[in-house]
Amino acid sequence: MAEPARDRTALLAEFGSEAAILRPTLNERDLHSAAALLTVQGSPGSRPSLMGWTDGRAVDLPPEVRREIGGAVRLPSTVAGTLEELSGWRRRWEVLAAFEGEADPPLWLKARCAILEQRLDTLPPQSRADVAARLRWVLEAMAAGPNPDEAARLARLRVDLDECTASGLLEVAPEPEEPLPMEPAPGAVQTGHPAEGVSQAADPSPRTGAEKRRAVLDLLQAEDADGAEPLTDREIARRVGCSPQTVGNVRKSLAPAEPSV
């Protein structure tokens, strides 16, 4: 009994009072109200349900429950935002359970978390933060124990990583390098200013990841055609403005496939 008492003491210090802890948030009120219209009271000795749903995955939610619980509070549009909300609800229930002593979350909370979990498995990543959130979610789910969705989650994570690598989303910008010294124009005085009649070229517009890979491919193919001495990955990366890893990936794609045994 000492452990729960310490938890409550720490929570009181964090929130200020028990009333502040138990006071429902606006989102809690909206979700509770949406669930109240869908709750079906069970027979004596059985628990209430949301139109027959009492627990489990989002795929088993009745369409009306999914629509109302998913729409009562706007769902996040990113993987990172979805994981943040799910973590927030789990933390909220831990806090409430420490004071109310209930072991089972309310139906509206179970349904909301089930919807969030499904979105974590299906939303396409839009940033590095989304990829990191997906990886964190998969690892947390695996740590929780065997799950029928584990194989699908791992497959989805692999697809995400492949797609993000191909699009350049995970590409790390190359480290800045010292610019090469410029050769002065004939007859020009080295004053730090361009010679008269010689214009300075404008900076090229930024390239997309696809354009960079195309430029790398052109340089590599030109080496093969001319029989020139191959450039290093770092030199090609410097010329194109990408990372040496990108050059290495393109170079590997040109290598002939090893014959299968």
Q: What do you see in this structure?
A:
The protein has helices at 2-15, 18-22, 26-36, 63-72, 79-100, 107-122, 128-143, 150-167, 209-226, 233-240, 244-254; strands spanning 39-40, 49-50. It contains eleven helices and two strands. A two-stranded antiparallel sheet has the order 1-2. Strand 1 (39-40) and strand 2 form a beta hairpin. It is elongated, with a radius of gyration of 29 Å. It has three domains: 2-123, no CATH class; 127-170, no CATH class; 209-254. Helix 3 (26-36) crosses helix 6. By secondary structure, it is mainly α.
List the helices and strands and how they pair.
Elements (H helix, E strand, L loop, with lengths): L1 H14 L2 H5 L3 H11 L2 E2 L8 E2 L12 H10 L6 H22 L6 H16 L5 H16 L6 H18 L41 H18 L6 H8 L3 H11 L7
Antiparallel strand pairs: 1-2
Helix pairs in contact: 3-4, 3-6, 4-6, 5-6, 5-7, 7-8, 9-11, 10-11
List keywords for this structure.
about 260 residues, mainly alpha, 3 domains, two-stranded antiparallel ribbon, 11 helices, about 0% strand, elongated, Winged helix-turn-helix domain-containing protein
The unreliable regions are 175-205
Strand adjacency order, main sheet = 1-2
| Order of secondary-structure elements | HHHEEHHHHHHHH
Structural class: mainly alpha
Kindly give the count of domains: 3
Helix content: 55-70%
Can you give the mean pLDDT? 79
Mass-distribution shape? elongated
Strand content: under 5%
Number of strands: 2
What is the gyration radius calculated from CA atoms?
29 Å
Distance between the termini: 64 Å
**Biggest sheet features:** 2 strands, antiparallel
Q: Number of DSSP helices?
A: 11
